[in-house]
UniProtKB/TrEMBL annotation:
GO molecular function: heme binding; iron ion binding; monooxygenase activity; oxidoreductase activity, acting on paired donors, with incorporation or reduction of molecular oxygen
Gene3D superfamilies for the chain: Cytochrome P450
Originating species: Clohesyomyces aquaticus
Ranges in coiled-coil conformation: none
Protein name, per record: Cytochrome P450 55A3
Pfam families: p450 (PF00067)
Length: 441
């Protein structure tokens, strides 16, 4: 016998069941939504403030899961000590060809198929290739280069002050400074600098179309290829000649590897350098009492640059790995093939390592006897950590030190040509940067 003694009773029961089911489904999807990992990268809430999620996760959930654009759910590590563990653990790999490696975009996934350079290699290949260029970036080599960096900064400022005010600071200063210097190290002839700097800007400034960016990329690669051939015939004292003479000719690497390594050195740090120069100017203008100290004592530039690179961790998406075997990290079981993102931007604000981490303090890394906090600038994560820590850190720091020891001496009245609120920032889910900066003095 039917449970329902009339069609009406049946349809009422059915409606009630469907209602129960829909409440259950709604509650299931709420629970699922509650447990689904948050989407990553997190967004900066405002201007240069880091994403608020980092502080919350440091306090409540330092090793967690996040969801990327492709639905994958790598681990996110936000505490300083765990970031160091991730970046020094050889059971974790930087090889982007390994399944599970966390890619941040469709373009990145595509690029991961290319033949890698040392930035994407594991030991022992990583150090074999990195050591081919390292000597040109060590402390002695950069100390010798310092007068050239100073001349480059001075002459770009000379040219900038001749322009009608306000000027496009990126175009006239923060882009050409690092470009001209790295081109000099590579051995690019002076007369080609302007053209190549333009091409580099097109490939990396984000406002070009995909076709324009890839054409500019190809132009740069073709140009470097020709330079590799020329230096093969008549070597000079530069990075490309060194690669050709010491590596390509004896057969350690192929011509195409030399082109790729030179290209890596050309593009790896350029956009970040531009960002850090822009951010340095804007940060000083926002903290006039700290700017006054720097103007009174330009040798504070070194301490300022360390704090700048801690406070604005300008390259925060590169420190990614994938587990080669099962490991345990801070009590969590991470399986082979799972991705890990080490959030250096969060580690640089870790309250267990830096006092008042959200305060910008030019004296943070000065010794206590000089009125500073006596903290250790090497612990700031701006340049990464471990074997892949930025190979050009000394160069980058020296360029920034020279820039900030010079800029406000030469132009003490330098100021923004627009209000701070109108500055154009990089998209909130991308690395911190400024896309347009007009200044006057
Ligand atoms: C302020 C400027 C710079 C910042 C903040 C910066 C930051 C970083 C960071 C965070 C890494 C580590 C990536 C990782 O672990 O995978 C890195 C690596 C690297 N950087 Fe820089 N960088 C800067 C300037 C430069 C410059 C000017 C160059 C080139 C001349 C450069 C070339 C490289 C290269 C080739 C690597 C890969 C090193 C390796 O994998 O062994 N960087 N950089």
């Amino acid at each position: 016998m039917s449970m329902y003694n009339s069609p009406r009773a049946y349809s009422s029961r059915l409606r009630s069941c469907l209602q129960t089911l829909s409440v259950a489904r709604a509650s299931y999807s709420t629970t699922a939504a509650m447990t689904a990992p948050p989407s990553f990268p997190f967004a900066r809430p405002h201007a240069w403030d880091p994403p608020a999620e980092y502080a919350r996760l440091r306090a409540t959930n330092p090793v967690s899961r996040v969801q990327l654009w492709d639905g994958s759910t790598p681990w996110l590590v936000v505490k300083h000590k765990d970031v160091i563990n991730v970046l020094t653990d050889n059971r974790l790999s930087k090889e982007r060809s390994r399944p599970g490696f966390p890619e941040m975009s469709a373009g990145g996934k595509e690029a991961a198929k290319n033949k890698p350079t040392f930035v994407d290699m594991d030991p022992p290949q990583h150090m074999q290739q990195r050591s081919m260029v390292e000597s040109l970036f060590d402390v002695d080599a950069i100390a010798k280069l310092r007068p050239h960096i100073q001349r480059t900064v001075d002459s770009l400022l000379d040219a900038m002050v001749k322009q009608e005010k306000p000027v496009d600071f990126i175009d006239k200063f923060s882009l050409p400074v690092p470009s001209y210097i790295i081109y000099g190290i590579l051995g690019v002839p002076f007369e080609d600098l302007e053209f190549l700097t333009q091409q580099n800007a097109i490939r990396s400034n984000g406002s070009a179309t995909a076709t324009e960016a890839s054409t500019a990329n190809k132009t740069l690669l073709d140009y470097i290829g020709k330079l590799v051939d020329q230096r093969g015939e008549s070597p000079k004292e530069d990075l490309i000649s060194k690669l050709v003479t010491e590596q390509v000719k004896p057969g350690h690497i192929e011509r195409s590897d030399a082109v790729q390594i030179a290209f890596l050195m050309l593009v790896a740090g350029n956009a970040t350098m531009v960002s850090m120069i822009n951010l340095g100017v804007v940060t000083l203008l926002q903290y006039p009492e700290q700017l006054a100290k720097l103007k009174a004592n330009p040798s504070l530039s070194s301490a300022f640059v360390s704090e700048l690179c801690r406070y604005h961790t300008g390259s925060a998406m590169a420190t990614r790995r994938v587990a080669k075997v099962d490991i345990e990290l801070a009590g969590h079981a991470i399986k082979a093939g799972e991705g890990i993102i080490a959030a250096t931007q969060s580690a640089s604000r870790d309250e267990d390592v830096f006092s008042d981490p959200d305060v910008f303090d030019i004296a943070r890394f000065l010794p206590k006897e000089e009125g500073g906090r006596g903290e250790d600038g090497y612990k700031a994560m701006g340049y990464g950590w471990g074997e892949h820590r930025c190979v050009a850190e000394t160069l980058a720091r020296t360029e920034l030190e020279v820039v900030f020891a010079t800029l406000f001496q030469r132009l003490p009245n330098l100021k923004l040509a627009i209000p701070f609120e109108d500055i154009k920032w990089s998209p909130p889910r991308k690395d911190i940067g400024i896309t347009e900066l007009h200044v006057t003095w």
